[in-house]
Amino acid sequence: MENNSPPILRAVNIRRTYPGVVALGGVSLDLYPGEVHALVGENGAGKSTLIKIICGALAPDSGELFFQGRAVAWPNPVAARTEGIVTVHQEPELFPTLSVAENMAMAGGLPLRGPGLVDWSRVHRQARETVRQIGERIDVRQPASQLSVAHRQMIQVASAILQNARVVVLDEPTSALSGEEARWLFQQVARLKADGAAILYISHRQEEIFRLADRITVLRDGLEVWTRARQAVGPEEAIEAMVGRPASTLGASPSGQANSPTIEEGPVRFQASGFTDRRGRFRHIDLEVRSGEIVGIYGLVGAGRSEFARAVFGLRPAGGLVRVDGNPCEIGRPREALNAGIAYVPEDRLSQGLCLGLPVRSNAVLSTLRRWTRGLLASRTREQQATRQVAGRLEVRYRSTEQPVQQLSGGNQQKVVLGRWLLAQPRVLILDEPTRGVDVGAKAEIHRHLRLLAREGCAILLISSELPEVMEHADRVVVFREGEIAGEFDPRRTGPARVAALALPRQSTEEASAAETRSAASRARGRSFNELALLLCVAGLGLWLTVSTEGFSLSNLLTHASLWAILGLAAASVIVGRGIDISIGSMVALSAASAAMVLKLPYSPELLIPVAILAGLLAGTAAGVLNAVLALVGGLHPIVVTLGTLTIYRGLVIAMLGGKPMTGLPPEFGRLAIDPATGFRGAVAVAALVVLLVYLWMAHTRSGRQVYALGSSPRAAGLLGLSTARLWPVTFGLGGLLAGVAGVLQLSMGQQMQARLGAGWELSAIAVAVIGGVSITGGRGTVLGVVLGALLLRLVNSALVRWGVSDQQTDLVVGSLILAALLLDLAWRGWKR
Amino acid sequence: MSWIERMSAGVDSAPPGGRSYRRVFGLLPWVLLALALLLVFSQVRRPALLVEVWVPWIEVGTLAFVMTAIILTGGIDLSVGSMVALTGMVQAVLWQDWGWSIEAAAAGALLAGALAGGLNGLLVVAGLSPLVATLATMALYRGLAITVAGGDRVTGFPPSFLDMGRLLGIPSQFWLAGLVFLGMVLLVHHSRFGRWCFAMGDNRQAARFAAVPVNKVEGVLYTINGLVAASVAVLGAMRHDASIPDAHIGTELQVIACVVVGGTLITGGRGSVLRSLLGLAVISHLDVGLQFLSSRLVWLTAESRLIAIGILLILVAVWNQRSQRES
Questions:
Q1: Whether residue A507 has pLDDT greater than 50
Q2: Of A132, A134, A114, which is closest to residue A124 (Cα–Cα)?
Q3: What are the tens digits of pLDDT across the range B247-264?
Q4: Distance between CA A570 and CA B206 in Å, rounded?
Q5: Do A334 and B325 touch (CB under 8 A)?
């Protein structure tokens, strides 16, 4: 620690409140160069809020932040990062559909070259350099969803080093790392320290803190308890400060260890034999739990523990036999497991355990609804009684049974999930990390209840990656390693070190990651499958039609496909950013009507035509932007908004036309799209230009890539300061502009404007996008794909005409095509897995 | 765009808390609106005429009651309108070309509806996004509806069949709507099945982990939707003495509008069938009421009605969103 040099980062008296909660009540923190500063505290102590403020993801209510001596206020995390503050989050938020390289570059803002285009070669060069640092083989072009959590964290640490970071924030960096990987991390921390960077290290693991830290700051309830040099504190002191009471009173609950001999004599309640995962995450698991026994399953993340539990509960296909009380059970679905008397408390409370928006009652009785129904009808009163009873038993703190469960604290939420399964009166209870993210008090209560349940005769499987938890609360500990049972211990007679050592993987990390890289590479190849298949279809059909059909006009085909490509891009640009616009057809009509109105004015066509085009495009863009603004300001789903504007814009069109079709537009205007004298197809030229520009924007500019990022993961995008509020006006505006282009083109081709123009086109536009491989959930899709999708649609249409199928049946074809595209994609993804 | 960011941020940070009476407050504007429009109808000289004018909206409402349950689970079915057209054509073709009795043909239409809805359910269960899957079947079923009879409408049903178009002097559509409404209220709000729907819409994965048979729920719901669409089609044939291949284009949007205006969250997990009835009341009163008024007010033309309905949809949706956030 170099106290004589000034601090790199100073946080002074930082306050931040959320509605009803003071997250930080005036916390100060200094980080000096070359120091590792540990930040400890219980969940909810304010650690993550402080990190978010330091890295620019959150603005403080009051207080100041000084970086290298000057006051700073980060507008977004990218600004902090470019200044040299790098944050490695516990569960790195990634953009799953973007490449590894792009993910790495996105955090610091994509590098540009020339006229505002992204410098891709630099992005990939830097990414490869970073990967080399880690010494593992990772393909930087593969989508980030293929990376393991360990690799994600290692990559972030490595890029922090390469970036010459001045401040590195590591949030629980070892939670997903194996022993080997953790050692690598500690080396990197030492290296950063030697380079003079300041490291803010957040961890729950005492031994890491006391091994690495120079100074320790303890937070409790949003306030700083103390900051001291490591040498000046002992582990006990740190825990006491975190919890606010002496550590000795914590673990010793009356339930503690049940050493009564009856456990050994209880009958075998649960028996799993020969369990093997279909996807190879675990093999040949044989496990027995006696009535009244708590068996702890310990293992690192990825050892196959949770997968095993899910397979037992019927959430994952696996081979093997389950017996409950000696009776073999056929379990293919959770309901069958439940009927067999097995309950499973999942590892992730928020995404797997709770329906956050629903009341406590609904969550508590969800799995046992049949018991509370009278005849055929559900009874709210009986459900409430059941809820009150179980909530009372577990001492859940809540206001009313109708209170949304999201208003409860983490510990109480966990008790609601536990209560749900207690109501099912299970004979076998499997708990996966039941105390993760739960404060110390609630943790002790949960453990006490588990012991009580066991005494009542339940067989309990307690899965945990916290060694102390299984050592203290289990009667027997089973260690999982690489999908197999590595050993079994009596926690009263075995030291924790032996158990921990057994859990470490034997397989060298290189072998494993090489295998991972291979499979990832084959998966990455699958991505371009869609476009290749489309291209082949288009080429084949096109060739066949040209050869076999007399009078088949390629330029006619292209003209029609042009319109559809533009409409498809209009839909795609919105969908990629996780929006959807179903008013496209009305916007087409609106811009065509605007252009037609201008053309009807009594001036010379030369003057009117440019004005008309401009009016059309403006009307489209304005309509698109209005959709976005309404969705954002009203807080509405875009489907709802555009459902409304769909009728509004259509009403406007009818009003503009005054109920009559508009004809007699100047012939010069008609020549724009197709000039019969020269045969020049303006429509095709316009479409080519549009395709080129949209391609450049979506694939090669910062804002285009930000749209993909937003669509790929709104949460990760939020950490970079990207929001729908910033990007939707752009994407919806572009969608409107393109609809406007289509409207003007259609007007020029058709030479008349009628009220129903473009009605229902929104669905065809979305169809073109989907056939072209745009994912409806955002973040995935290419301009090339959309263009091919439009071509395919038109070609199939021509082929049908050739076969004598009437023009009316286009719907049939469009529908089958979308279905085929979707099912192919689904089958392909399933097969890849 | 900073003001947009500010405003939408303001919406998100609305304080939590509140009680159920606020939810009742949320209903207030509709009740008022409905009353106001009833006043308009009081000027109509022949109230019997109203019943006839209302039939298309009652059909929309019937479909909206089922759609509410689907939207509650986080799904959507864009193919309802096409299913009505398709099943209507199936009935017509079975009767006209295959020589089935009209009753058997009607049963065949119901079966076709169940199959069409079942296919939607299968696709959704297979893992496709409901929006896209039913977008595809919407086009597919419409195409089939046009293909089965070569694109022509079929008329000339036997008089005994047409007579069933009215029951106790009221168009049968009203009876069907009442039946479906009651059935859906019981199913959604007073049964285990309905509890499952809410849980799935709030968090599908958590529902699955809580042993909710998510696939079964989806399969059943989409199939019911197909069945009800077929019933609407059969009654429609009775009323118009015709099966029309391009009937009910755009009906899906009206159906969804009723559900949304009622205040059911489009993303699922919150809402009710009763609310959809209110949504139907608001939209249909407005539409029918304005139609009547337009005979007297020159400026009140078809287009201003469209615009008014669009604006209403957005305003009520915003109102619902805000009042739900507060409660």
A1: no
A2: A132
A3: 887 788 889 888 888 888
A4: 35
A5: no
